[in-house]
């Protein structure tokens, strides 16, 4: 199965999840993150606002012992901004919740961990995204490439192997509702 077919299949499977199941699995993912020293030892964490039934990490964002950054799509790139109040977000070009452009930017040197939304991940640490290349461009740039990354995915989309391209970037770890695995 190619990437396009696999993406469509997995997105449909994710979309068909009942809300209670989605919430319970999302809560287990956040519990697994909280059990990871990679997460708990971080100070500045880049995350995402759930979209299209991605795992919801929002229960973590109230924890003020962390500084939270969220992406804003600008052209073909992600720009990261701090969010400390929910009213400082807006709806972006793709219908995704994102920080208001006036929110303070996040300095890449301060970032300790990036939580990466995925459609699927494989056991080697590769991810299947939505096909826009935003995270591959980010993670391949010199200022971001050595930052620890954890792909966030439901267990049904954690697969033995994905089709990969030369530009696909490997993640440091994967977190599902069943486990967190550092690769």
Give a short overview.
With 183 residues, the protein is an alpha/beta fold. The chain is built from four helices and twelve strands, in the order αααββββββββαββββ.
Describe the structure.
The chain has a 7-stranded mixed sheet with strand order 3-2-1-6-9-11-12. A 3-stranded mixed sheet has the order 8-7-10. It is built from 4 helices and 12 strands, in the order H-H-H-E-E-E-E-E-E-E-E-H-E-E-E-E. The chain is 22% helix and 25% strand. The chain has helices spanning 3-15, 19-34, 37-40, 134-140; strands at 44-46, 67-74, 77-82, 89-91, 97-99, 113-117, 120-122, 127-128, 149-152, 158-159, 173-175, 180-182. A hairpin with a 4-residue loop joins strand 11 (173-175) and strand 12 (180-182). The model has no long low-confidence stretch (mean pLDDT 94). With 183 residues, it is an alpha/beta fold. It has a single domain, classed as Rossmann fold (3-Layer(aba) Sandwich), CATH 3.40.50.10420.
Helix content: 10-25%
CATH superfamily: NagB/RpiA/CoA transferase-like
Helices, by number, come to 4
Structural class: alpha/beta
Give the tally of structural domains: 1
The gyration radius over C-alpha positions equals 15 Å
Judging from the principal axes of the Cα atoms, what is the shape?
Answer: globular
CATH fold call: Rossmann fold
Strand content: 15-25%
What descriptive keywords fit this protein?
alpha/beta, Rossmann fold, 4 helices
């Amino acid at each position: 199965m190619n990437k396009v077919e696999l993406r469509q299949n997995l997105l449909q499977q994710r979309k068909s999840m009942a809300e209670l199941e989605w919430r319970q699995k999302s809560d287990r993912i956040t519990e697994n993150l909280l059990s990871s020293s990679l997460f708990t030892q971080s100070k500045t964490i880049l995350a995402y606002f759930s979209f299209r039934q991605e795992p919801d990490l929002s229960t973590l964002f109230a924890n003020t012992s962390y500084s939270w950054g969220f992406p804003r799509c600008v052209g073909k790139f992600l720009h990261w901004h701090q969010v400390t109040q929910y009213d400082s977000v807006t709806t972006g070009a793709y219908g995704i919740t994102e920080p208001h452009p006036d929110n303070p930017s996040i300095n890449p040197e301060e970032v300790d961990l990036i939580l990466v939304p995925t459609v699927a991940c494989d056991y080697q640490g590769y991810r299947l995204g939505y096909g826009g290349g935003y995270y591959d461009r980010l993670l391949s740039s010199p200022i971001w490439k050595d930052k620890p990354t954890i792909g966030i995915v439901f267990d049904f989309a954690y697969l033995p192997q994905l089709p990969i391209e030369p530009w696909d970037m490997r993640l440091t770890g994967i977190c599902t509702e069943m486990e967190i695995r550092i690769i």
